Amino acid sequence: MQIIKTNNYEEMSRVAAEKIINLVKKKPHAELGLATGGTPEGVYRLLIEDHQANGTSYKQVRTVNLDEYIGLPKEDQNSYFTFMKEKLFNHIDILPENTHVPNGMAGDVNAEADRYESFVHEIGGVDLQILGIGHNGHIAFNEPGTPFDSTTHVIDLTEDTRQANARFFNSIDEVPTKAITMGIQTIMDSKEIILLASGASKAEALKRLVHGEITEQFPASILQKHSHVTIIADEAALQLI
Ligand code: GLP
Protein backbone atom coordinates (compact mmCIF):
# COMPACT_ATOMS: atom_id res chain seq x y z
CA MET A 1 0.00 0.00 0.00
CA GLN A 2 1.53 3.28 -1.08
CA ILE A 3 0.60 6.50 0.73
CA ILE A 4 0.97 9.89 -0.93
CA LYS A 5 0.65 12.76 1.53
CA THR A 6 -0.38 16.10 0.06
CA ASN A 7 -0.55 19.54 1.63
CA ASN A 8 -4.23 20.05 1.01
CA TYR A 9 -7.37 19.02 -0.89
CA GLU A 10 -6.34 20.76 -4.11
CA GLU A 11 -3.00 18.94 -4.26
CA MET A 12 -4.70 15.62 -3.44
CA SER A 13 -7.04 16.23 -6.37
CA ARG A 14 -4.18 17.17 -8.70
CA VAL A 15 -2.07 14.09 -7.92
CA ALA A 16 -5.06 11.81 -8.49
CA ALA A 17 -6.14 13.59 -11.67
CA GLU A 18 -2.62 13.26 -13.10
CA LYS A 19 -2.69 9.50 -12.51
CA ILE A 20 -6.02 9.16 -14.30
CA ILE A 21 -4.89 11.34 -17.21
CA ASN A 22 -1.68 9.32 -17.58
CA LEU A 23 -3.63 6.07 -17.65
CA VAL A 24 -6.09 7.35 -20.26
CA LYS A 25 -3.22 8.57 -22.46
CA LYS A 26 -1.41 5.24 -22.15
CA LYS A 27 -4.55 3.13 -22.50
CA PRO A 28 -7.30 4.96 -24.44
CA HIS A 29 -9.69 2.03 -23.85
CA ALA A 30 -9.25 2.18 -20.07
CA GLU A 31 -12.07 1.00 -17.82
CA LEU A 32 -12.35 3.55 -15.04
CA GLY A 33 -14.20 2.85 -11.81
CA LEU A 34 -15.62 6.11 -10.50
CA ALA A 35 -16.88 7.26 -7.12
CA THR A 36 -19.25 9.94 -5.91
CA GLY A 37 -19.29 11.97 -2.71
CA GLY A 38 -17.62 15.29 -2.00
CA THR A 39 -14.06 13.99 -2.05
CA PRO A 40 -13.58 13.21 -5.78
CA GLU A 41 -15.27 16.41 -7.01
CA GLY A 42 -11.93 18.24 -7.26
CA VAL A 43 -10.43 15.42 -9.32
CA TYR A 44 -13.33 15.59 -11.79
CA ARG A 45 -12.98 19.38 -12.03
CA LEU A 46 -9.30 18.97 -12.91
CA LEU A 47 -10.05 16.28 -15.51
CA ILE A 48 -12.47 18.72 -17.16
CA GLU A 49 -9.89 21.53 -17.07
CA ASP A 50 -7.25 19.26 -18.60
CA HIS A 51 -9.67 18.04 -21.27
CA GLN A 52 -10.48 21.63 -22.23
CA ALA A 53 -6.89 22.88 -22.11
CA ASN A 54 -5.00 19.86 -23.48
CA GLY A 55 -7.62 17.83 -25.30
CA THR A 56 -7.17 14.57 -23.38
CA SER A 57 -9.82 12.37 -24.94
CA TYR A 58 -12.25 9.97 -23.24
CA LYS A 59 -13.95 8.83 -26.46
CA GLN A 60 -12.88 5.24 -25.96
CA VAL A 61 -12.93 5.19 -22.17
CA ARG A 62 -15.63 3.24 -20.35
CA THR A 63 -16.67 4.09 -16.81
CA VAL A 64 -18.47 2.07 -14.16
CA ASN A 65 -19.67 3.81 -11.03
CA LEU A 66 -19.60 2.17 -7.65
CA ASP A 67 -23.13 2.71 -6.46
CA GLU A 68 -26.52 4.38 -6.71
CA TYR A 69 -29.37 5.19 -4.34
CA ILE A 70 -32.52 3.12 -4.70
CA GLY A 71 -35.69 5.09 -5.36
CA LEU A 72 -34.26 8.35 -6.71
CA PRO A 73 -35.18 9.03 -10.35
CA LYS A 74 -32.12 9.41 -12.58
CA GLU A 75 -32.91 13.12 -13.07
CA ASP A 76 -33.04 13.75 -9.30
CA GLN A 77 -30.36 16.22 -8.26
CA ASN A 78 -29.07 13.74 -5.68
CA SER A 79 -28.93 10.64 -7.85
CA TYR A 80 -25.39 9.54 -8.56
CA PHE A 81 -26.35 9.35 -12.25
CA THR A 82 -27.01 13.11 -12.25
CA PHE A 83 -23.98 13.80 -10.05
CA MET A 84 -21.68 12.14 -12.57
CA LYS A 85 -23.26 13.90 -15.54
CA GLU A 86 -23.01 17.31 -13.91
CA LYS A 87 -19.60 16.91 -12.30
CA LEU A 88 -17.86 15.16 -15.19
CA PHE A 89 -19.56 13.43 -18.11
CA ASN A 90 -21.31 16.50 -19.60
CA HIS A 91 -17.99 18.34 -19.80
CA ILE A 92 -15.70 15.79 -21.47
CA ASP A 93 -15.97 13.85 -24.74
CA ILE A 94 -16.95 10.53 -23.17
CA LEU A 95 -19.80 8.75 -24.98
CA PRO A 96 -22.94 8.53 -22.81
CA GLU A 97 -23.36 4.85 -23.74
CA ASN A 98 -19.91 4.16 -22.28
CA THR A 99 -20.84 5.47 -18.82
CA HIS A 100 -22.48 3.09 -16.39
CA VAL A 101 -24.22 3.64 -13.06
CA PRO A 102 -26.47 1.02 -11.43
CA ASN A 103 -30.18 1.66 -12.07
CA GLY A 104 -31.69 2.50 -8.70
CA MET A 105 -35.17 2.67 -10.23
CA ALA A 106 -35.14 -0.88 -11.61
CA GLY A 107 -38.33 -2.85 -10.92
CA ASP A 108 -36.25 -5.70 -9.50
CA VAL A 109 -33.23 -4.14 -7.81
CA ASN A 110 -31.68 -7.51 -6.92
CA ALA A 111 -31.76 -8.52 -10.58
CA GLU A 112 -30.25 -5.13 -11.45
CA ALA A 113 -27.40 -5.77 -8.99
CA ASP A 114 -26.72 -9.15 -10.64
CA ARG A 115 -26.82 -7.57 -14.11
CA TYR A 116 -24.35 -4.88 -13.05
CA GLU A 117 -21.98 -7.43 -11.54
CA SER A 118 -22.05 -9.49 -14.75
CA PHE A 119 -21.45 -6.37 -16.79
CA VAL A 120 -18.33 -5.43 -14.80
CA HIS A 121 -16.96 -8.92 -15.51
CA GLU A 122 -17.94 -8.82 -19.19
CA ILE A 123 -15.91 -5.69 -19.79
CA GLY A 124 -12.88 -7.42 -18.33
CA GLY A 125 -12.79 -5.68 -14.96
CA VAL A 126 -11.81 -2.23 -13.81
CA ASP A 127 -8.32 -0.91 -14.61
CA LEU A 128 -8.34 1.87 -12.04
CA GLN A 129 -10.93 2.26 -9.28
CA ILE A 130 -11.31 5.57 -7.46
CA LEU A 131 -12.60 5.25 -3.90
CA GLY A 132 -13.54 7.56 -1.06
CA ILE A 133 -14.06 6.36 2.49
CA GLY A 134 -16.94 6.79 4.90
CA HIS A 135 -16.33 7.63 8.55
CA ASN A 136 -17.42 4.12 9.51
CA GLY A 137 -14.98 2.58 7.02
CA HIS A 138 -17.50 2.02 4.25
CA ILE A 139 -16.23 1.86 0.69
CA ALA A 140 -18.82 2.49 -2.02
CA PHE A 141 -21.92 1.71 0.08
CA ASN A 142 -20.49 -1.43 1.68
CA GLU A 143 -21.41 -0.80 5.28
CA PRO A 144 -19.72 -2.47 8.29
CA GLY A 145 -20.61 -6.16 8.40
CA THR A 146 -20.72 -6.59 4.61
CA PRO A 147 -18.99 -9.88 3.70
CA PHE A 148 -15.59 -9.47 2.07
CA ASP A 149 -16.68 -11.88 -0.68
CA SER A 150 -19.76 -9.80 -1.58
CA THR A 151 -20.52 -8.95 -5.20
CA THR A 152 -22.83 -6.13 -6.38
CA HIS A 153 -25.87 -6.14 -4.10
CA VAL A 154 -28.66 -4.17 -2.46
CA ILE A 155 -27.76 -2.69 0.92
CA ASP A 156 -29.57 -0.93 3.77
CA LEU A 157 -27.78 2.34 4.49
CA THR A 158 -26.80 2.87 8.11
CA GLU A 159 -28.11 5.85 10.04
CA ASP A 160 -24.53 7.10 10.21
CA THR A 161 -24.16 7.13 6.42
CA ARG A 162 -27.58 8.71 5.89
CA GLN A 163 -26.65 11.46 8.38
CA ALA A 164 -23.30 12.05 6.63
CA ASN A 165 -24.99 12.35 3.23
CA ALA A 166 -27.96 14.40 4.47
CA ARG A 167 -25.96 17.56 3.73
CA PHE A 168 -26.77 17.12 0.05
CA PHE A 169 -30.54 16.81 0.67
CA ASN A 170 -33.15 19.19 2.11
CA SER A 171 -33.59 16.95 5.13
CA ILE A 172 -32.54 13.52 6.39
CA ASP A 173 -36.01 12.19 5.60
CA GLU A 174 -35.25 12.62 1.92
CA VAL A 175 -32.08 10.49 2.08
CA PRO A 176 -32.87 7.05 0.62
CA THR A 177 -32.63 4.08 2.97
CA LYS A 178 -31.25 1.64 0.40
CA ALA A 179 -28.67 1.55 -2.36
CA ILE A 180 -27.17 -0.75 -4.97
CA THR A 181 -23.43 -1.05 -4.49
CA MET A 182 -20.57 -2.92 -6.06
CA GLY A 183 -19.50 -5.53 -3.52
CA ILE A 184 -16.21 -5.67 -1.70
CA GLN A 185 -15.03 -8.54 -3.89
CA THR A 186 -16.00 -6.54 -7.00
CA ILE A 187 -13.87 -3.65 -5.78
CA MET A 188 -10.98 -5.91 -4.80
CA ASP A 189 -10.98 -7.37 -8.34
CA SER A 190 -9.93 -3.95 -9.74
CA LYS A 191 -6.40 -3.99 -11.09
CA GLU A 192 -5.49 -0.76 -9.31
CA ILE A 193 -7.19 1.30 -6.60
CA ILE A 194 -6.75 4.92 -5.58
CA LEU A 195 -8.39 5.88 -2.29
CA LEU A 196 -8.85 9.59 -1.68
CA ALA A 197 -9.34 11.27 1.68
CA SER A 198 -9.25 14.85 2.85
CA GLY A 199 -9.71 16.56 6.18
CA ALA A 200 -9.40 15.72 9.86
CA SER A 201 -12.79 14.02 9.95
CA LYS A 202 -11.29 11.13 7.93
CA ALA A 203 -8.17 10.74 10.11
CA GLU A 204 -9.51 8.00 12.39
CA ALA A 205 -10.85 6.04 9.41
CA LEU A 206 -7.50 6.24 7.61
CA LYS A 207 -5.68 5.07 10.73
CA ARG A 208 -7.91 1.99 10.93
CA LEU A 209 -7.60 1.42 7.19
CA VAL A 210 -3.78 1.42 7.28
CA HIS A 211 -2.98 -0.01 10.71
CA GLY A 212 -6.17 -1.61 11.97
CA GLU A 213 -7.26 -5.23 12.10
CA ILE A 214 -8.62 -6.59 8.82
CA THR A 215 -12.25 -7.10 9.71
CA GLU A 216 -15.64 -7.00 8.01
CA GLN A 217 -16.64 -4.55 10.76
CA PHE A 218 -14.39 -2.02 9.01
CA PRO A 219 -14.81 -2.70 5.26
CA ALA A 220 -11.91 -0.53 4.03
CA SER A 221 -9.44 -2.64 6.06
CA ILE A 222 -9.55 -5.30 3.30
CA LEU A 223 -7.57 -2.92 1.09
CA GLN A 224 -4.48 -3.93 3.06
CA LYS A 225 -4.66 -7.17 1.05
CA HIS A 226 -4.87 -5.56 -2.40
CA SER A 227 -1.60 -5.61 -4.34
CA HIS A 228 -1.89 -2.16 -5.96
CA VAL A 229 -3.50 0.43 -3.70
CA THR A 230 -2.46 4.07 -3.44
CA ILE A 231 -3.89 6.28 -0.75
CA ILE A 232 -3.75 9.92 -1.77
CA ALA A 233 -4.71 12.05 1.20
CA ASP A 234 -3.94 15.42 2.70
CA GLU A 235 -2.00 16.08 5.88
CA ALA A 236 -5.13 16.55 7.93
CA ALA A 237 -6.51 13.16 6.93
CA LEU A 238 -3.15 11.49 7.55
CA GLN A 239 -2.44 13.13 10.91
CA LEU A 240 -2.86 9.86 12.87
CA ILE A 241 -0.66 7.74 10.59
C1 GLP B 1 -20.87 7.99 0.11
C2 GLP B 1 -20.41 7.21 -1.12
C3 GLP B 1 -19.00 6.71 -0.97
C4 GLP B 1 -18.11 7.84 -0.46
C5 GLP B 1 -18.56 8.30 0.90
C6 GLP B 1 -17.71 9.43 1.47
O1 GLP B 1 -21.49 7.23 1.06
N1 GLP B 1 -21.26 6.12 -1.45
O2 GLP B 1 -18.54 6.22 -2.21
O3 GLP B 1 -16.78 7.40 -0.40
O4 GLP B 1 -19.89 8.76 0.78
O5 GLP B 1 -18.16 10.62 0.93
P1 GLP B 1 -17.42 12.02 1.01
O6 GLP B 1 -16.37 11.95 -0.04
O7 GLP B 1 -18.48 13.02 0.67
O8 GLP B 1 -16.88 12.16 2.37
Key structural traits:
241 residues, 31% helix, Glucosamine6P_isomerase, seven-stranded parallel beta sheet, three-stranded antiparallel beta sheet, Glucosamine6P_isomerase_CS, binds 2-amino-2-deoxy-6-O-phosphono-alpha-D-glucopyranose, identical protein binding, single chain, 17% strand, 7 helices, alpha/beta, globular
Would you mind describing this structure in some detail?
By secondary structure, the protein is of the alpha/beta class. 31% of the residues lie in helices and 17% in strands. The chain is built from seven helices and ten strands. It has a seven-stranded parallel β-sheet with strand order 1-10-9-6-2-3-5, with helices on one face. Helix 1 crosses helix 2 (41-54). 2-amino-2-deoxy-6-O-phosphono-alpha-D-glucopyranose binds next to helix 5.
